[in-house]
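hey so i finally got around to running the thing on that chain from the lab meeting. sorry it took forever, my laptop kept dying and i had to restart like 3 times. anyway pasting the input first so we r on the same page abt which one it is
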Amino acid sequence: INAEYMGTPTAQKMTEQQDPLLQSVLGLFESAFGKPDSDLVIACAPGRVNLIGEHTDYNEGFVLPLAINMHTYVVGKSNGSSRFRFVGLNGESKQEDAHEAAPGSRKRKLAERSAPTPSSSIQEKLQAEFDADSLVAVPNAPAWHNYVRGVVAQYAKADHKIPGFDIAIGGNVPLGGGLSSSAALEVATATFLDGLLGISVPGPTKALFCQKAEHDYAGVPCGIMDQYISACGSADHAMILDCRTNTFQLVKLNNPEVSILITNSNVKHELSNGEYAKRKHECEQAVKIIKQKYHNVNSLRDADQAMVFDCADALDAADEAYFNRALHVVTENARTVEAAKCLDSGDYARLGQLMIQSHVSLKNDYEVSCEELDTLVGLALNFSQERGGGVFGSRMTGGGFGGCTVTLVKSSEVDRLRNHIDQEYSNQYGHSPTFYVTRACQGARLLGKH
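ok and heres what got predicted. didnt touch it at all, straight out
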């Protein structure tokens, strides 16, 4: 089985400086820029998985993410010039986007066969450089170039004088897997800049810088969740985040009898292709219609299920999608608030029910799931049904159109569940999913100097 464990006793004992991934990034720096003549700044930022609260963040709603033990490292130093030079281990995946390839089509099958192991990296060095006068988005550049440019630009706009630097970048957050590889890169870059400049930008401010970079330089109108949890996550805690006020509460998540299993379908999505922006636009249009009757509604955060049903005819008359999009958001907000209470009280059974309801809504009302994600969720729930329990709940996580599911499962059942899913999924699609067992981890940090 293609699987990776996170947070095993061996991994916990390993110091971060001994992480083989970090050693690879340090080696990449030396091969690209030569042996450093001074200490390197080492920054690290995690990906995330969202337990519940999907497509609510850009609607000023609630989300319940946690930082995971998959990271992006940025290591480097000033280079005495005005040039910013960077080299990366991970490149653009060649895998086809799920929503562009019809199920059963030759294109889809080729995409499935080419699905990469998420922790693998393209071996050729991917390099770029720019100077202080070139802090603008480059339309034809690979996305990761613009993430770095965008973060540097936000620091420069905040009147931080940034010297030229050389950096190497590498990570094991799956590209396009719905675990926020882009936010991990952005926040790791921002944290590197903190170390380089000898400053400490507060986590919430850093998250806003990175969100702005993604909006303006990657063209993705994302909410604040991904950057916020990567910058501000806490070990052994999930975070209930209010995306209107950008305030949060930490919720304990460290029960050894309950595990979080992430299953990657190995079908990649690409949010900047327009589907993300389309959903955001549909929600904004729904708000305008609801506001005609309920004048205090300025975002779907202000609406409830009764309001949506009361405006159903007007929503459907404008676009049949508007009612469904609004219904998902208002019900998902309610589910997320309740889920945080369930997690805090240890009511995993109810939390699991809310996760299942969330997936059904994402599939039917928001229409961002896909066949593979539905299959993975179904296999997890069927396993539990056949065994009389074991799985509390399962749902797609991330933007959708491929990527990962998150499953809340009894720790004693993890291996059996993985074996069941792997066998059935492989038989159906001809390739294995990838599994990760994670704990709630610390957010972005500097690891000292090397």
